[in-house]
Design goal:
Length: 485
Amino acid sequence: MDMIKYIVKRLLLSVLILFGVSVIIYSLARMMPTDYVDNQYSSAVSQGTMRQEDVDRIKELYGLSMPDAYLRMKVGTGSSFAGDTFSKNTKQATYDEDVSLGLMTWEAWYEGSYDGPHNTRLVINADGTFSIGTVESRGLHVEAESSAAETSGGETESSASGSLITLDEKYTPVESGTYRLVAGEGEDASSIRQVVCTLSDGTELTIAAEYRLAGFWDKAGAVLSGYFSWLFNVVRGDLGMSFKYKKPVKDVIFQNMGISFAIAFVATLLQFLISIPLGIKAATHQYGFVDYSVTVFSMTGISLPTFFLAALVIRIFAVDLGWFEVGGIASSSLPMDATWLQRLGDTLWHMVLPMFVLVVLSIGSLMRYTRTNTLEALNADYVRTARAKGLTEHTVIYKHAFRNTMIPLVTMMAGILPSLFGGAMIAETVFSIPGIGKLAYDALIVADIPFIMGYNIFIAILTVIGTLLSDLMYAVVDPRVKLGK
């Protein structure tokens, strides 16, 4: 019963921890200097095949919108939408430099889509026509890339992979007609124009225009709105759509972590099978040849950067000796009709160098940790008592000292779970292995924020679970530890 209470308590605490972690990750992601959406759409906007508000709408859907200025339209009497306010984000520089200086017409500046309450939209066209209607938002859709970007009701995102992320929206006009612009009254007479509209049935109405800069609280509200929109979707199991891979983030993670898990699992198994015996051997032969050899080997592994050792083994074993191919998980010479056994063997052969690098780099710290803990245990009173009772040295070391040596090593279990499923980012990148680590690195380079957020919260959840399992293992290896007390 105490165990169950402890687990429930830790799980509730984990929810708070994950909430704090997600806030930090989201804040850091929003501060990234690269903007994937703007980079992808910059050419379309400059060519006129896409409007800036279309780009802003896509960013709002991802919770990444940051307002600069607001242009609001309030519909007057005579319309079924009377009293509703429609708005769009605009750029302060566009108004200050283009409109005020006469480089852009008022019609061109007002042109675009304005979102209103209850999925309504106002569309103003530069040719003097307008419409007000409803929008049915059906989320995101991925389709084959077309030759021209869609702009109205189907904004798209280009992809080098030959596919597009489309905002699947259906706009249904309810009212339409023509409009003309007139100067406003009072202070805004020289800086803003009001819209006088004539509906198709001859009814005349006025749409009051308001322009203002976004303040601090507007920007803070946009960030908070984006975060809680993302959090609400995560609670529902939706990690969003990846910008780069044009797939749901959870699908990208679960479809590509298999190869990373296989490499990490074998590397971790070899790490423990090599490190712990060598650490114990070094401790039982303190200041001897074995101890010094293990120390030099472990310090070498700890000191070498992953990319350096990976490049070194590629140069020696793949380029110079030709024993392995440079990278990837399949040989270019593998026949198309190869059996599954041949493909499996070819893949395992490609995994030798990455696993060798991961093992060499990881066993150093574990060996030193095991050696230090074993030396401490061998100097304990209960070990001297066991020796005085006439027990063999093997029994003293592996039955009495080793069990207590494992207590501090259990702490390392907290990091095993995320390392198994999180991928080895640098190693996978150097060896061109399409694992989850390489995908995360490629997404980070282009600021694929939905994937970055989903991947990091996935790792955070695994870390929390690993920490909980580590605490539970303390009670297994050390009967003196009582959980829930």
